[in-house]
Amino acid sequence: MPKPGFYKSNVDVALSDQKHKVGIGAAVTNNKGDIVAVMSSFFYGNLSPLLAEAKALLWAVHWCMSVRFPLDCIASDCLLLVRRVKHRWKDNSIFSDLVDQILSCLSFFPFAAVIRESRDHNVISHNLAKAALRL
């Protein structure tokens, strides 16, 4: 749970290779666990699951920046992505570029931690991502 006065964002992605679509879902909760905002969107493309998760996390952070939610926690169910963001991983890949962009945006939220939560705790954002594929 986020601290009083702060919010937590959960983000997830769903892929449809047949439709060449990526669905993104995000939910923001307060310190009582109440959902205060949700967002669902999609874009066209065929990405690896890891790149799609990174794009979704970047998208969710941009959304929270524009709405000005004071985040203290951003949760994803993608362990590899969370580890690479936490350790500021770098190489010459597109994925590394996305990690850099995520880190740059996270400077807007100086108290925010990026954490991994199991899919069981990420159900709302996952359902939002799946719904975006139907749009």
From TrEMBL:
Record-given protein name: RNase H type-1 domain-containing protein
Pfam families: RVT_3 (PF13456)
GO molecular function per UniProt: nucleic acid binding; RNA-DNA hybrid ribonuclease activity
RNase H type-1 domain mapped to chain residues: 10-132
Matches recorded under InterPro entries: RNase_H-like_EbsB-rel, RNaseH-like_sf, RNaseH_domain, RNaseH_sf
